[in-house]
Amino acid sequence: MSILVVGSLAFDDIETPFGRSDNTLGGSSTYIALSTSYFSDNIQMVGVVGSDFEEKHFELLNNKGIDTKGVQVIEKGKTFRWSGRYHYDMNTRDTLDTQLNVFADFDPHVPAQYREARFVCLGNIDPELQLKVLDQISNPELVICDTMNFWIEGKPEELKKTLERVDVFILNDSEARLLSGDPNLVKSARIIRNMGPKTLIIKKGEHGALLFTDNGIFAAPAFPLESIYDPTGAGDTFAGGFLGHLARTEEINDSELRKAVLYGSAMASFCVEKFGTEKIANIDLLEIEDRYQSFLDLSKISA
């Protein structure tokens, strides 16, 4: 099953109370694609980088079965860069510097061979660009979309147009409250689902995630970790694991959606154990299945 991932590729300078990592490979599509790659070997990526994006980074992606022919390389340009510092609780962060560079003029062009993709995952880019991508796809079976506060506040009408064409929408609790205008997450979910996406996932960080469908609500726990080094990209990694499971099973029903949430949570729990993409680039399927089983065990009730 072909999977199209569209979003940013970036270099991050990350500082947490437990260390620092500079020039770290990041970006929404990078995290999504790497996470999905453990479940599928037919991933197509669309994005833009500068000439400072080294061959070793392409090799990493390609070795994971990710087709990067759709990534534009702008000669003499620089790749998107972000710098941030996390607070002690790891739930809040300060953006120290953002350099859009070549990403400022990103105009997503989906190659002809990608336009039959069955699954489409849109990272948290400008909703107008998300729409432009969807206009180039023939007949996707499933469209998954992410967003962020910046777009909810800056382009609410454009985002709502995108949501009319989205099947699964993923956002965090503060974003859900901002978009819906309601502090109650259950009410927020109803309001947002009425905008288009019938499947909604609200991430709650260390408190897990909520899945809303026509068949009810499913609550997934967060994995209890002793060491969390870097939460950057955890949400995108979640989306990749969620998408990967659905692509692997080739079934979209309430049971598989719930399993997908747990796989997404498992992948996100790996992501935070190292800086950047280091951890999710170096795990294997057995580790993932063990972590998934651990999630099942967390909610198991003994007789």
From TrEMBL:
Spans through the membrane: none
Keywords: Kinase, Transferase
GO molecular function term, any single one: kinase activity
InterPro entries listed in its UniProt record: Carboh/pur_kinase_PfkB_CS, PfkB_dom, Ribokinase-like
GO cellular component: cytosol
Domain of life: Bacteria
Residue ranges of domain Carbohydrate kinase PfkB in the record: 23-278
Gene3D superfamilies: 3.40.1190.20
PANTHER family noted in UniProt: RIBOKINASE, SUGAR KINASE
Entry protein name: PfkB domain protein
Organism: Prosthecochloris aestuarii (strain DSM 271 / SK 413)
